[in-house]
Design a protein that fits this description.
The structure is a single chain. The strands form 3 sheets. Strands 1, 2, 3, 5, 10, 12 and 13 form a 7-stranded antiparallel β-sheet that branches. This protein has a 4-stranded antiparallel β-sheet with strand order 4-11-6-9, covered by helices on one side. It has a two-stranded antiparallel sheet with strand order 7-8. It has 7 helices and 13 strands. The chain has one domain: Sandwich (Jelly Rolls), CATH 2.60.120.
Length: 257
């Protein structure tokens, strides 16, 4: 993630510039998969040394009480790109921007950034939801986006036992689904058709360093973590640069329209 350019690591750190993967765009097959299913997995984007450095930075951030995201989101760090130089480097990395440039246009802006955590042996789930239900304000045109989406970067391998993503393929085409606000779990705008989601969902296991790209309209959720190890994922939500607002101070234009 070019994290070395902004971090305090010494020159002896293993994450040297030579270890960085090159930038590349989605293939036609990957783009077709994203358009049809509302998500796509891109493997081998971030090498292990970079993931380890990001993970160490998250250790530092979660130890600071000022970054506490609340009892229902233990280990999370909201607005992580504004709280950390390394977090900012991840969100603004050219590898991510080049990967999404054919999806998010005209221009690219950050809507929000966060670090989500599944603690070991945690039963806290993230309910079935759509990110756009949290992001869109129907009465405020400045929040409207046609291309809003997220990049989901796991710092550890994500699989069914430790809380990988589950998605409903094709659900991004259905508009905003009715939801109910609940006072438990990590994602509180819970889609009403939960039984339908469970029936049609598929898991999205990914290796550490791969990324999942998914539309802000795609139905998704995650279960608890049944393992002895933490599972973390860095999430950056992007939108076209012509959208004038994001989530508070997290909005930032990276590539002008």
């Amino acid at each position: 993630m070019s994290v070395m350019s902004v971090s305090s690591a010494s020159p002896a750190s293993p994450a040297s510039p030579a270890s960085l993967t090159p930038t590349y765009r989605l293939t036609s097959t990957q783009r077709q998969r994203y358009d049809e299913d509302g998500f796509v997995v891109v493997p081998d984007l971030v090498p292990p040394a970079e993931l380890e450095e990001i993970d160490r930075e998250i250790d530092r951030l979660v130890a600071d009480p000022a970054n506490d995201a609340g009892a229902h989101r233990p280990g999370w760090v909201m607005d992580v790109a504004r709280r950390s130089d390394i977090g900012q480097a991840v969100a603004e990395d050219e590898r991510l921007l080049t990967l999404i440039e054919d999806i998010v246009q005209p221009g690219i802006a950050i809507h929000s950034t966060k670090l989500v955590t599944k603690l070991p042996h945690s039963e806290i789930e993230c309910h079935w939801h759509q990110d756009e239900a949290f992001y869109l304000r129907p009465d405020d045109p400045s929040t409207h986006s046609k291309t809003r989406m997220s990049v989901w970067l796991p710092l550890q391998a994500a699989h069914e036992r430790n809380g990988c993503l589950w998605v409903v393929p094709g659900s991004q085409r259905w508009g905003i689904e009715d939801y109910t606000m609940v006072d438990y779990g990590q994602c509180r705008k819970k889609i009403d058709r939960e039984a339908y989601a469970n029936e049609h969902a598929i898991p999205v296991p990914v290796a550490a360093g791969a990324v999942v790209l998914f539309s802000a309209w795609t139905w998704h959720h995650s279960k608890g973590n049944q393992t002895d190890r933490v599972r973390r994922a860095f999430i950056v939500s992007y939108q076209e640069a012509t959208v004038g607002r994001g989530a508070g101070e997290r909005w930032k234009v990276l590539r002008p329209a």
